[in-house]
Structures are given as structure tokens and as C-alpha cells.
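Protocol step 4 of 6.
Sequence for Peptidase (Micromonospora carbonacea) entered exactly as in the expression construct, tag removed. Do not edit the line below.
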Amino acid sequence: MPTDNEFFEQLQARLAADPTVSWTAEETSISRLTEEERRKRLGYVPGPQDLSLEERERRSEEHRGLVRSAAAGEWNWTNVDGSARSFIDPVRDQKSCGSCVAFGVTATIEGAARIAEDIPYSDPNGNALPQLSPAQLFYCGGSMGCQHGWYPDAAFDYAENTGVVPEWCFPYTPGNQPCNLCDDWRNQLTIISGYSWTGDPVIMKDWLTTTPLTTCFTVYDDFHYYAGGVYRHTSGGRAGGHCVCVVGYSDNEQAWLCKNQWNTGWGQIPRFENEEVQPHLERGYFKIAYGECGIDAMMWKVDGFNSIYTQ
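Step 5 output, C-alpha cells:
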């Protein structure tokens, strides 16, 4: 088995030798971790109604070369209509805990709430919505803990039946925390009215023009070195399952734009080919090709809200 340095050198050589490849690899904050630490930053375990990771990949492969949808050929919730209006909160860090589902679902709910209230991040009128608590979703919502991971349906069920408090009511710390909410938590809830899922990528793109989505996919070893472009699995073995928030798509690049939760020392700035870099955006996002690694086998969306907590 090659060392990390040997794997990185071989990966770069493969990327350079293949003219069809459109992503770049660098040493990142994630690639520098041990294999065990990298694995702790995943955490998707298929639920009772979910497809296996292998079946997700098989279904997703059928979506390569997608027919363009009736919706706009490109969408990006971090840069709506090229106006630099972002409805997506800053990139966060799940750290050494398999809580990716809680972060991906929280990011989706946050974005959907901002859109419903028409309050972009850094709203020029001074309006604000708080970041929500992935800790509550994960530690109070019935997950099996950091070592075991979770699945989206359970997280969305909790957000519908109980709701999610702001981050300040239950700050996130990696590790198996007790469910320890603030005293006034019942008066600070954002509660969704329901959620839906689809396995049709045309519907996914139509949904994305109205709200961000949650998805899960297979992470391979080369993904840890991702530093920009449209990712396609090139080399390395399977590391595990992972969930993130999808914030856009591009038919021109044949790619989904996703917000990860590995902080900003990994990934790229969230833009497509013809978009200018906005000053308030940081790395931490990635583009992944349609039909790759199970990314579009299934996606989830928020249908609406029973309540949205505002500051």
C-alpha cells in the first residue's frame, strides 16, 4: 500500500495524464490527517429506507450525460443571479465526529429558512437569522453517536417533530455529548412542516432553483486532496459515506455545487466557470460531476416551515 506522499504523487500524475480530468489535487487540511481521523469526518450510514452505498453509485451512474432540465441551466445559492446575494451560511467544521448528516441537514434548513424569509446572509438591511444547532440534531435526535453516524430521514423527522434551536442554545463540540439545551429552548425553535426526497436528477435541479438540498455519497481516498474543479473519482479506495448540502448546479459543467463541513482548509470557493469570486466567500465547497459516487441517487428538500426563529 503506498504511503500518503506516494499516493498524492501518483494521483497528481494520473490527473495530469488524463485530458478528460477537470479537477486539481493538493495537500489539504484533510489529506494531512491520519486515515483514522479522515474516517471520523464522514458518518453517513444508510437508513432503513435508503439504498446501500454501492446501489447509490450504480443508480447515480445512470445519470451521467443528463438531459438538460427545463429549469435554468445554472443555479448557485451563494451568488443568486450574479448579484453576490448568498443565502448560505458560512462553512463549518464537523471535526472528529461522524455527524455529517446533522451538518448537511442543518445547512439545508438554514438555507431554506433564509429563502422563505428573504433574508440573505449579511443582509444589507440588517435582518438576521441565526445559525442552527447541528449538535441538537445529532445528540438529541437519536443518532447512535460519533462512531456510528446517522441518516437524513431521521434528522429531518426530528426537525419536523421537535425543531432545531440556534447554535448558541446548544454549541457543537465533537464527541458524544449529552443532550444539553438552553433553558428557553422551546421558544427558539425553527420547525419544518415536512420534507420530500427524489431520485430524479431533473427534479433535483428544479428543486434547487427554489431551495438547497441534502445529499449523501461515497467518499474515496482521492477526494481528501480535492482543491478545485469538477471532481470525478480517479484513484484510491472507499473511505465511507458522507452527507452534505447541495447549493447549486451547472449544466455547462455537468456538475453539482455542494457545501461541505470540513472547514475552509479544503475545497474551493463556491463559483462556476463564469462567476466572479465574491469577497465574502471562502473555500470549503466542491463541484462533483453528475452521476459520480452516488451523489444524485437521492436528494432531500424542506417542504416548508411551521415556525422560523428570527433574531
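Step 6, annotate. The mean pLDDT is 93.
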